[in-house]
Amino acid sequence: MVHRRARHLLGTDEEARDAMQEVFVRVIASHASFRGEVPALHWIYRITTNLCLHRLRKRKTHPVVKDPDAALRLIGEDGAPVDRLIVLQLLSRMDELTQQIAIYHYVDGMKMEEVAEVVGYSRKTVGKKLEAFREKARKILGGAR
After folding, report:
1. Which of 34, 58, 82 is the C-terminal boundary of a domain?
2. How far is it, in rounded angstroms, from Cα 87 to Cα 106?
3. Is 104 inside a domain boundary?
4. Are 38 and 47 in contact (CB under 8 A)?
């Protein structure tokens, strides 16, 4: 699960294996801080997502959205499938919590209630963050046209 998640976000098996090792080093190092408020799998999933997002931010690139029309389908209401790479490109310009929430919702297909449980925030907060993501994405895409 960790390797699949990392490969999906980082793009290569090599990066995914490296990230997977680091995730489990972090899990072992911080196991004492795990309070059991969420299932262990959610905790590990969150560590994996945060680590991958950190690595993407370290790349210090802000990729250009190559297909604004596909991205507009993402933030629209039609529910059309969207290339996950486009979502990651948009996310490179968002704050960390918004990145997590948008990945769980748009990339992983989780419902807002599920996202709220994983990130430890209310459903209302998740909804507000998703709306903020859509608004910022519309602004970014407006400049891409």
Report:
1. 58
2. 8
3. yes
4. no
Task: Note the pTM of the prediction, 2 decimals.
Answer: 0.60
- For residue 63, give the DSSP letter: P
Closest CA to 120 of 31, 41, 33, 46: 46
Distances in whole angstroms, Cα of residue 1 to Cα of each of 23, 32, 128:
12, 22, 28
Q: Which amino acid is at 117?
A: E
Report the CATH number at residue 125.
1.10.10.10
Confidence (pLDDT) at 19: 93
In a domain? residue 123: yes
Structure tokens at 93: 């310009």
Examine the domain organization and report whether 19 and 79 are in the same domain.
Answer: no
Residuewise pLDDT in 10s, the chain (145 residues)? 899 989 888 888 999 999 999 999 999 998 888 888 888 888 898 899 889 888 877 765 555 555 555 555 565 545 555 566 666 777 777 888 888 888 888 777 789 999 998 888 999 999 999 998 888 887 777 754 4
Q: Directed axis angle between helix 40-58 and helix 84-91, to 10°?
A: 70
Spatial contact of 37 and 120, defined as CB atoms under 8 Å apart: yes
